[in-house]
TrEMBL record:
A GO molecular-function descriptor: beta-N-acetylhexosaminidase activity
Keywords attached to this entry: Hydrolase, Membrane, Transmembrane, Transmembrane helix
Family as reported in the entry's similarity comment: Belongs to the glycosyl hydrolase 20 family.
Catalytic activity: Hydrolysis of terminal non-reducing N-acetyl-D-hexosamine residues in N-acetyl-beta-D-hexosaminides
Residue ranges constituting the Glycoside hydrolase family 20 catalytic domain according to the UniProt record: 176-314
GO BP annotation list: carbohydrate metabolic process
InterPro entries: GH, Glyco_hydro_20_cat, HEXDC-like
Transmembrane segments: 27-46
SUPFAM superfamilies linked to this entry: (Trans)glycosidases (SSF51445)
Protein name: beta-N-acetylhexosaminidase
EC numbers for this chain: 3.2.1.52
Organism (species): Macrosiphum euphorbiae
Length: 628
């Protein structure tokens, strides 16, 4: 009995165990499969690490082999397109490296190997602030200057133009919203408090429109029809320049440098006083006269000039006028390929004539007169290529390069509309200043960038070092920095929205007035269209129109702490209002087209304006050779 009970118990337990095993079979199977997958993944990662290491070793060995080739510094680097050039170690500069794989390969490996030599960093790194016709408020500059200092700026190139409080016989030049002398002194004080050296800039030859446009100074023009340039042969012109220099030096004090402009003198040798003289003599004699006056007035002040008018001049002519002893050239190129615009032969001339030189890149205001946001990708490429060139050419000057100025133009000239204003360009300024301060741009600078722009938890984090800014997909850095809180960030963020609306607007205008056949200028002129088709074309009109109207007040509020009411209204008039006005015009045209209830039979009357361009109302006879 006990044996039978024991046997039945064993059988019952075995049955229970078997049933439980069946129920848990899927769980056990999944557990075993997970363990197997884990083992396979570990083995795959180990082998993959070895493979990548082999690729890296191969690339490093290839670089080492390339470094053994002799470097010809007289041969400018090949032009680039869309990527920043990868330089050899002897060229003393690190750059963003983009190793482009062939199109058939979908994977791209980017490697930034540490270089043995230190990257080239310009001794001085100045930010150019262009005040032309749009003066930032002092409260905004008070926030801007510490930012420039934090990211490595050593000074400011301040172009006052009509925003300077000119006085005496020059008082008509000062704009109605120009800074006062007290405000100028406060700006200089803020610069000094942030350890930023100030170099004032005044135009003394070309680009004198701010004065020559006025009747008081029209007699100083080289060409009476154009206020672009002074006549260098007229004694009153030099007297005018001396007065400007006196007033600038009076308020700026004993500055180390004074930039006297002299770029893009478009009119020269055209008036009756100048026709008998060679253009190069006219230019160099005027520059010598102005520079000599500056050095006499302030012996410790070195005049700087833009270099473009010197590029074609022979060495002997420049030496004849002692230009190398009087001024220092500031060589400016804002395009990506610097050597293309200032070739090796020009550098060789400059190195003979001048012991020192400056360079000038750009962070805004260089790629389109009507842009409202800078292309950071292009500007960064420009700055990095300048570093490469400066590394190449620095030792050829006896005193080397003095530094680089990162220009930020607000208008292309006095008459031009506003291009990218300061708050739209802060990320570009910071990125390019950081690159020139360190000699390179890679992910090691990401923390500084995010902290300096107050990105907080929204700071961008990209694990791919070679493309951490993602400039190929986000050249304006809207995605990267729209949620950061740098000075002017609200305006910067609103531009992203405006850009999106502008795309919809352009598509609507193109489709409605060009691509479709019911609201063209012909339809509107003859009031001849289908109401049904007009309604179809106007489907998106209200949405786009309301979106634009909704942007006006936020833009005004976002700019209030940055610019005065005149600059704000000018910007809105140039950027937003034209689209609103065009949409209102199309709305009225659509209303008139739909108001028609009957339409004439063809042919429609000929437009009378066609007579003006030679279209005749009578039927022309068929040419006798037609069809032969």
């Amino acid at each position: 009995m006990d044996r039978t009970l024991w046997k039945n118990s064993i059988i019952s337990y075995a049955g229970w165990f078997t049933n439980s095993l069946r129920r848990r079979r899927s769980i056990l199977f999944g557990l075993i499969l997970s363990i197997l997958l884990f083992v396979v993944c570990v083995q795959y990662n180990a082998s993959n690490d070895i493979g990548i290491q082999n690729i890296q070793n191969t690339l490093v060995m290839s670089e080492s082999d390339a470094d053994e080739q002799p470097l010809n510094k007289h041969q400018p680097p090949a032009p680039i397109s869309g990527t920043v050039r990868k330089m050899k170690k002897e060229e003393d500069v690190n750059f963003i490296e983009e190793l482009q794989e062939p199109a058939r390969k979908s994977r791209r490996i980017q490697i930034n190997e540490p270089q043995q030599s230190l990257p080239y960093v310009p001794p001085q790194r100045l930010v150019h602030i262009d005040f032309k016709g749009a003066p930032p408020k002092l409260s905004y500059l008070q926030k801007l200057f510490p930012l420039i200092k934090r990211f490595g700026g050593t000074g400011l190139l301040l172009e006052w133009e009509d925003m300077f409080p000119w006085s005496g016989s020059l008082s008509p030049i000062a704009a109605g919203n120009a800074y006062s002398k007290a405000e100028i002194r406060e700006i200089l004080k803020m610069a000094a408090m942030n350890g930023l050296e100030v170099i004032p800039l005044i135009q003394t030859f070309g680009h004198v429109e701010f004065a020559l446009k006025l009747p008081d100074f029209a007699h100083l023009r080289e060409v009476q029809e154009s206020p672009q340039a002074l006549c260098p042969s007229y004694n009153a012109s030099m007297k005018f320049v001396e007065q400007m220099v006196d007033q600038i030096l009076e308020i700026h004090g004993n500055v180390n440098y004074l930039h006297i402009g002299c770029d893009e003198v478009f009119h020269m040798g055209e008036c009756f006083r100048c026709r008998a003289k060679a253009r190069e003599d006219l230019f160099l004699s005027h520059v010598k006269q102005v520079a000599t006056y500056v050095r006499t007035k302030s012996p410790n002040t070195i005049p700087i000039i833009w270099d473009d008018m010197l590029r074609h001049l022979p060495v002997a002519t420049m030496q004849l006028y002692d230009i190398g002893k009087l001024v220092e050239p500031m060589v400016w190129v804002y395009a990506e390929d610097v050597y293309r615009f200032v070739m090796q032969s020009v550098w060789e001339k400059y190195q003979i004539v001048f012991p020192n030189a400056w360079t000038a890149s750009a962070f805004k205001g260089a790629f389109g007169e009507t842009l409202y946001i800078p292309n950071v990708k292009r500007h960064l490429e420009n700055n990095l290529n300048w570093l490469q060139l400066m590394s190449n050419e620095n030792s050829r000057f006896t005193g080397g390069f003095k530094g680089i100025v990162i220009t930020g133009w607000q208008r292309y000239d006095h008459f031009a509309v506003l291009c990218e204003v300061l708050p739209s360009s802060i990320p570009s300024m910071v990125v390019n200043l950081l690159a020139t301060t360190n000699g390179y741009m890679n992910q090691s600078l990401q923390t500084d960038l995010n902290e300096g722009l107050n990105c907080g938890i929204f700071g961008h984090n990209n694990e791919y070092d070679g493309d951490f800014l993602n400039l190929n997909n986000d050249p304006h850095l809207w995605d990267q920095f729209s949620r950061c809180t740098f000075p002017g960030n609200t305006f910067f963020r609103l531009l992203y929205r405006l850009h999106t609306i502008e795309i919809d607007y352009n598509d609507f205008i193109l489709v409605t007035t060009k691509n479709r056949g019911w609201m063209t200028s012909y339809n509107v002129e003859h009031e001849f269209s289908s109401p049904l088709r007009v309604d179809e074309l106007m489907n998106d009109h209200s949405r786009i129109y309301r979106s634009l109207l909704s942007m006006v007040r936020p833009f005004q509020e976002s700019m209030t702490g940055i610019f005065d009411k005149y600059t704000i209204s000018e910007w809105i008039e140039q950027r937003v209002y034209p689209m609103i006005k065009e949409l209102e015009k199309i709305h009225n045209e659509a209303r008139d087209l739909k108001a028609k209830k009957t339409w004439p039979k063809r042919p429609l009357p000929m437009l009378k304006e066609l007579l003006r361009i030679g279209v005749t109302e009578r039927e022309l006879s068929t040419p006798s050779n037609e069809g032969t």
